[in-house]
Amino acid sequence: MAKGHRSQIKRERNANKDLRPSAKLSYARVSVQKACFVLDAIRGKDVQTAVGILAYNPRYASALVEKLLKSAIANAENNNGMKADNLYIEECFANKGPTMKRVKPRAQGRAYRIEKRMSHITVVLNER
Q1: Distance of CA 46 to CAs 25, 92, 121, Å?
Q2: 1 Cβ partners below 8 Å, 6+ apart?
Q3: How do 111-127 and 22-28 pair as beta strands?
Q4: Where is this region: Disordered (predicted)?
Q5: Could you say which of 24, 47, 62, 110 would form a disulfide bridge with 57 (CB–CB 3.0 to 4.6 Å)?
Q6: What is the per-residue pLDDT for 1?
Q7: 17 contact partners, CB below 8 Å, separation of at least 6
């Protein structure tokens, strides 16, 4: 545990902050496994290629990731002053979110559990 005053501790923690432009989508109604199929297709690509891949990908998660990528590009241009032509996707990952539990009636009075999974999707860009 760090020693010192609370403001000093906060200053030290904020000094180590990641300055790369990014965007995060929390509580996306898609499972981590399904989101990762889309994220694997664009990881390491430049943003123009990635937007093209996402626009023609038939998966549901691709629409979510495309919107998230455009948000990350806008963050890079407006907050960090980077040019969109030089950007590429350095990191993109999906973490597990909460699971909604539902019940489906089955034969002979039984009830089966249905788990509707959520994920937190993050896209981090960088400049070449």
Answers
A1: 20, 13, 18
A2: none
A3: antiparallel
A4: 1-20
A5: 62
A6: 54
A7: none
Q: What type of residue sits at position 37? A: F
Residue 2, pLDDT above cutoff 70: no
CATH hierarchy code of domain 18-127: 3.90.470.10
Reported confidence tier of residue 17, pLDDT bands at 50, 70, 90: confident
Domain boundaries, the chain: 18-127
- Nearest of 35, 47, 46 to residue 93 by alpha carbon: 35
Q: What are phi and psi of 93, to 5 degrees?
A: -150, 165
Q: Is 67 left (phi over 0), alpha (psi -120 to 50) or beta?
A: alpha
| Angle 44-21-97 from CA coordinates, rounded to 5° | 80
